[in-house]
Amino acid sequence: MAKEKKFITCDGNEAAAHVSYMFSEVAAIYPITPSSPMAEHVDEWAARGRKNLWGQTVSVQEMQSEAGAAGAVHGSLQAGALTTTFTASQGLLLMIPNMYKIAGELIPCVFDVSARTLASHSLCIFGDHQDVMACRQTGFAMLCEGGVQEVMDLTAVAHLASLETMVPFVNFFDGFRTSHEYHKIELMDQEDIRPLVKEEYIKRFRDRAMSPERPITRGTAENPETFFTHREAMIQFPK
Question: What is the pLDDT of residues 182-196, one digit of tens each?
Answer without folding.
Answer: 999 999 999 999 999
